[in-house]
Amino acid sequence: MNPALKFLYVAAAILLTGAAGMAVAAGADLGQTAKQVTNWTAIGMFAIFVGATLWITKWAAAKTKTAADFYTAGGGITGFQNGLAIAGDYMSAASFLGISGLVFASGFDGLIFSIGWLVGWPVITFLMAERLRNLGKFTFADVASYRFAQTPLRSFAATGTLVVVAFYLIAQMVGAGQLIKVLFGLEYIYAVMLVGVIMMMYVLFGGMTATTWVQIIKAVMLLTGATFMAIMVLYQFNFSPEALFTKAVEVHSKHDAIMGPGALINDPISAISVGMALMFGTAGLPHILMRFFTVPNAKEARKSVAWATTWIGYFYILTFIIGFGAVVNLIPNPTDYFVGGDIAKGLKGGGNMAAVHLANAVGGNMFLGFISAVAFATILAVVAGLTLSGASAVSHDLYASVWRHGNVDSATELRVSKITTVILGIVAVLLGIIFEKQNVAFMVMLAFTVACSANFPVLFMSVLWKNCTTRGAVAGGTVGLILSVALTIVSPAVWEAALGNPKGSALFPYASAAIFSMTAAFFVIWLVSILDNSKQAQKERALFDDQLTRSETGVGAATASTH
């Protein structure tokens, strides 16, 4: 056996044994830190899942020999498979735990997030899918920099990718930590560390092939589990949604308010801004865009989007039912699901674990174990995709293309990717600990704000506007990136809720910065580009027709970069 794989299996065995030992200790005497009685059925299913994914990792490792294999599975994934994998990537902890938790805590407003995420897919279908597949190789920077100077554009793209990945990782690690805390009875900090180590092991050895198949399997398991939960909830009310909503209004502390908007977002600017972030941010997420390089041609790329949209739309309908199902099952019986019967604490935490507790309520201990394992698979698959996109940004865009100007072999690039993976894993653990109290759906929305403000405008304008130049793209993207991050930090969600500053002290009053930062990015790209009359700009505009031909047909120059 390969020594690295041998180490992988030994380390996994040690981790699982250590986790079981800590679970025994936690179950025996947790004192004031006790969060949940140790669930051995769930732990057993968790162990089975870890073993199965290790086998997938071993199988994938044998197929991962080049950078193309590591980043894009060699382009050998079919449209249907990739559609399921995209759905698996998109049905993250934020979707499963976060949206159902938002519905549980606030009702109707939880739909804003699910609808916003869903309607972003037509943007990708009609504007991005074919162009991404025909112009790109490993990262979205390959597409955006096709006719532009490589160094400034790729440097910006890598920075934007890493910022988005960091925000997205927060949500996944928070969900993972809370899930394992429920599963093992561990304190949150140890749960996050345990999950972080296991996730790094998978990503280091499996590459995109393992990530894709874990996502596919996870998507099937999650759709199956969520369907069963929704059916069991509706069965309680003779499959009458009206009866379900009536009961939810009766038992929820907010009563009629949960059936109307305004609980989470109560001003029009925030509502529009959040909608823009969720819709256009989808087309700027690096780990989603990267998936279009795993299929062999543009036709399969379009099929990927069609299948992904189908599964994602169906799943978001289920999360709404699950959220209201949690209301009618958990709130009347808080002592069964919350320590000390403190339902207020469950609501204050955003209800992140509402779906997991509902699984126990409708399916018993065995189904709780299944959903816990599926939720962990959800987080594992998404973090794998995020880590791959972050690693590719550093190794392919920065190291290979900017620092080494393409003079680097595949083995060296892979080594840089794996070093980056370890660093990203450590950062993910630290961020997960810092942002423990945040609702995971909202934290992902922050990542979408950055994606729609920095990555999407650059990608959109570079591909579709002839007069766009390197200077315009980099200037506009940088403005969008800085504004989105700065305004997010001084918004109530981070400045007050995460950093603990007094209520009302936030400098930026709205829930999302997208309406300002995205608009500013597009304006600066336009203004700087039309004012740029340099020889470099003239060359870049002249190459637009070549780019357009290749983006629509896949036929053209291998690269048209002006360097």
Keywords summarizing the entry:
single chain; 563 residues; mainly alpha; Sodium/glucose cotransporter; 24 helices; disordered N terminus; disordered C terminus
Descriptive account of the structure:
This protein is an all-alpha fold and 563 residues long. It has a domain of 387 residues: Up-down Bundle (Sodium/glucose cotransporter). The protein has 24 helices and no strands. Helix 7 packs antiparallel against helix 14, helix 9 crosses helix 18 and helix 14 runs antiparallel to helix 17. The longest helix is centred in the C-terminal third of the chain and has 50 residues. The protein is globular. The two termini are 44 Å apart. The N terminus and C terminus are likely disordered.
CATH fold naming of one domain:
Sodium/glucose cotransporter
In what range is the share of β-strand residues?
A: under 5%
Task: State the secondary-structure class.
Answer: mainly alpha
In the predicted model, the low-confidence regions spanning at least 5 consecutive residues are 1-35, 556-563
**Rg, Å, rounded:** 23 Å
Largest sheet: none
Compute the number of helices. 24
CATH architecture tag of one domain? Up-down Bundle
Mean of the pLDDT scores?
Answer: 78
Name the helix and strand elements from N-terminus to C-terminus, one letter apiece: HHHHHHHHHHHHHHHHHHHHHHHH
The CATH class assignment of one domain is Mainly Alpha
Distance between the termini: 44 Å
Total DSSP E strands? 0
Backbone shape: globular
Q: State the helicity in percent bands.
A: over 70%
The CATH superfamily of one domain turns out to be Sodium/glucose cotransporter
